[in-house]
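Please check our next protein.
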Amino acid sequence: MEIISNKELRELLEYINNIDNKNLIEQNIDLSVTRCSPVEYILEGINFEKSIVQYPLLFYKFSSFEVLVEIVIKEKQKAVGLQPMLYVCFPVTKLKGEKRELIGRCAEQNEKAVLLLDKTHKDFILGTFKIFALLSKAHKSDVISIINLVLKS
């Protein structure tokens, strides 16, 4: 079953190719991590220095689907600089359990569930690709490669 047409994929590819790299989240000065100057903080007789770090959080709600896409901008784990991370948050009610209903019980160890998407979720799929491409040059390049690969098959 085709959820997204080749025409829609080509339009998505054109949209992403037209994103100015200066507008990517990793380049945006308004979305930088902020730190306050340290102040003395005494806890159990130990004089600490306390500083507060604020991380930008962007989120987008898809009106047609109870899903939220969040982008958190934090320091890179193994390098200097910032890294935007994308999270897709959806209610457990959208998942289908492998064996039985998930609601009203504890999950079993190593239990799996599936998020089923169909034509009614087209806006969510296309929108998530657009948002993912906005994160960084590397993310944008990855999305372009994926779309081109799908179009070739």
